[in-house]
């Protein structure tokens, strides 16, 4: 089975550099073009999904639906609040002051705050809460798919958010024994970097892909083994923040590209279709 962790398309909160979290931030016009690009990339490269999971927030839902729309056969799409972004509490809607934290929201940094930054909010969701959500999602949705041999060649898409997907990835790694997570041969971007210190990143519509395959030698059961967590699997990381689909995609000038997308307004190329 192959999993694709995909970050949602660009939103007005992203371009304004303000905290979004669980706020239902609208897509920008450029974000809509990003969705079209990533959807076309998957369709033209033969990446056909057997199942798509998505956060139920609008920015992820529209990204997932856009990807599914260009699939040769529509995949079952499950939207769940378990895949929502971290709730930033009183920081939601506020401008991000720290450069490190700004990059974090854009999917290019660690979730750890800088010393002295104003990142922490008393009402913000804890890492433990996000971990609980992530493990619940894995237990209810991913582990059952893995246990069914009929899904061995299935492509599964998970459309979510930058901070939460780091937690989800951490839960995946922690659920497996050391040495069962590795980088694909020739993965130059991560060559020589131990998986234990690897922190994935995501640009808008950037995706991480990895194969989950059974190990040739299944580990012996131990009393400490959680029966809900599959054993004998190997994760091979194939791509991190893949965004080849965005190559050549230009932002519309004059502030139009960064403006909130109006679903009722036709794009210029729709007005001038060839007859």
Please explain how this structure is put together.
This protein is α/β, with parallel strands linked by helices. The protein has a single domain (2-271), classed as Rossmann fold. The protein has seven helices and seven strands; from the N terminus they run E-H-H-E-H-E-H-H-E-H-E-E-E-H. It has helices at 12-16, 29-44, 58-69, 99-105, 127-147, 162-174, 268-271, and strands at 2-7, 49-55, 77-80, 155-160, 181-183, 207-214, 233-242. The protein has a seven-stranded mixed beta sheet with strand order 3-2-4-1-6-7-5, sandwiched between helices. Helix 3 links the parallel strand 2 and strand 3 (77-80). Helix 5 (127-147) crosses helix 6 (162-174). It starts with a strand and ends with a helix. Mean pLDDT is 80; it is low at 102-120 and 271-275. One of its GO terms (biological process) is regulation of pentose-phosphate shunt. It comes from Penicillium chermesinum. The active site is at 8 (tele-phosphohistidine intermediate), 85 (proton donor/acceptor).
Tell me the layout of helices and strands:
Layout lengths: L1 E6 L4 H5 L12 H16 L4 E7 L2 H12 L7 E4 L18 H7 L21 H21 L7 E6 L1 H13 L6 E3 L23 E8 L18 E10 L25 H4 L4
Parallel strand pairs: 1-4, 2-3, 2-4, 5-7
Antiparallel strand pairs: 1-6, 6-7
